[in-house]
Write a structure and sequence with these properties.
Number of strands: 4
Strand order of the largest sheet: 1-2-4-3
Number of helices: 7
CATH superfamily of one domain: NADH Oxidase
CATH class of one domain: Alpha Beta
Helix content: 40-55%
Order of helices and strands: HHHEHHEHEHE
Radius of gyration: 19 Å
Largest sheet: 4 strands, antiparallel
Amino acid sequence: MCTINQDQKNAILDEILATRRSYRMFLPVIPPEDDIRRIIHAGLLAPYAAAAVGSSKDYFRRFFVFRNGSASMAAVQPLVFRQVTAMAAALDHDMADKPRLRAQAVTFAQRLSMIQKMGTVPGVGTAPYYIVVAEKKGFPPVGQQSLAHCLENMWLKATALELGFQLVSITAQLGDDPAFCEILGITAGEWELAGCAVGFPKDELSPAIRPAADDVTRWMD
């Protein structure tokens, strides 16, 4: 039986929500595996697209944990980086004759260029853990929305455990990569993917600044 009252529950949740941040610098210390299991369990509690997935004999969601310094991490790092290179080349080609796209995507293109110069994708080999989440594809295709709920749960749990969390969004582009999916042991093209990095944060970040709810809310008649 829970021993804290509703006000205490809300205060704790509000604190977790307010301190959730994106960490991109991690200490080399490896967090306990039990903490990673608790984060994954939080992901399992997230809502999912039941109507889209349908009834499957296999569970629709999978988690793959890569530990920094492992053979599996060494195997996926070049595959993830290759995807960044391919995305950058495709974006440069599309922006060449599309001024509107160039104006919209210039910041993202610069980030891809920065990652290429670094030679590594932030979060993949730069954090103690890289976690890939896979969601079985269904119809309508809402796997990425479902994965967003899953990652948010994991993010909040990591925050409660005082661990840093970073989305590795390029992971979503690897669901059709045969080499990457072979390492995971899944069939390319059948799963939506998302990824994150987890570890002890190197620096403490201040809470995010957001406007008051009333400033961005319109109550409809």
